[in-house]
Specification:
heterodimer; A: about 120 residues; mainly alpha; 5 helices; about 65% helix; B: about 160 residues; alpha+beta; 4 helices
Chain lengths: ~120, ~160
């Protein structure tokens, strides 16, 4: 189970579009800093800064190969954040589906009279 | 209905944006969000709960208060706030805070009702004043997500990639 502070770190890391794109790239397989910097038209130091944030949040790990230090996606924290978003989504979807039903009932009744009483 | 599906279109550590299309005219949808009699019929929490108290003073500076009750054991949860900006039936800005010991921050919520071709898109932007406020949501009695691994990741990542194009 992830702590609240870990979840905060995850969301903070995900708040940046470049970092989200880096994660999307790493979902396809590991990559070096060079390989990541290329498609983003960013300098290596700029990419490295983003990688530090992602690593700090536990979303990626770096390989031991001193030359390449390939970045790997770490799935656990991200799926935890995904679980939370999913729960939030489900909570609202249940409510909005009820509202769909209510709106259909309201459309079928004169506005001035308000909605029908009872179910 | 796929094109009406709920979208959570942006999110960072202190903001959530939700968007949903409803097949009804703007004034009707606005009423469903602001009239207690109507709110009680859809915004009553998880199954087995009810919106027992729903008081709304719909004007700038006016207050609102909701009390939800779990019918089985009498558990109650309440929330209140103040309307900051109001342009019926188009826009509402309000603050809200849960009156429970697990809350620790006020949220600022902007709700837009945008009409188009007899339908209404409702976009809600929830701005947490601190991570504490969002933590309160995390600890709320929402159904918790089931543990999952890469399968969920694969669902989330294409969305992320699409955002960055």
């Amino acid at each position: 189970m992830q702590s609240i502070s870990q979840l905060d770190a995850t969301f903070a890391a995900l708040a940046d579009p470049t970092r989200r794109a880096i994660l999307a790239r790493l979902a396809l397989g590991e990559a070096s800093v060079n390989e990541l910097a290329e498609p983003f038209a960013m300098s290596q130091p700029a990419i490295s800064k983003h990688l530090k944030v992602l690593e700090g949040a536990g979303l990626i790990s770096r390989g031991r190969d001193a030359q390449r230090r390939p970045c790997r996606l770490e799935a656990a924290p991200l799926s935890q954040a995904g679980d939370w978003i999913d729960a939030y989504r489900r909570f609202w979807e249940v409510h909005f589906q009820r509202l769909d039903v209510l709106l259909e009932e309201m459309k079928a009744t004169p506005q001035t009279g308000g909605p029908k009483e009872g179910e | 209905m796929v094109d009406n599906a709920l979208k959570i279109s942006a999110m960072n550590d202190c903001e959530i944006v939700m968007s949903r299309v409803f097949n009804a005219e703007q004034p009707l949808v606005f009423a469903a969000f602001t009239e207690p009699k109507l709110l009680k019929r859809w915004f009553f929490g998880p199954d087995g709960w009810s919106l027992k108290v729903c008081e709304i003073d719909l004007k700038v500076g006016g207050a609102f208060r909701y009390v939800w009750r779990k019918d089985a054991d009498g558990t109650e949860m309440s929330m209140g706030g103040v309307y900051r900006e109001l342009e019926a039936p188009r826009r509402i800005v309000h603050t809200e805070v849960f009156e429970m010991d697990w809350t620790c921050g006020e949220t600022r919520v902007t709700t837009l009702f945008v009409p188009q071709d007899g339908r209404t898109t409702v976009t809600t932007t929830i701005l947490y004043s601190s991570t504490g406020a969002r933590d309160a949501v995390l600890k709320s009695p929402m159904e918790s997500g089931v543990a999952a691994g890469y399968d969920r990741l694969e669902r989330i990542l294409p969305d992320m990639a699409a955002e960055t194009v």
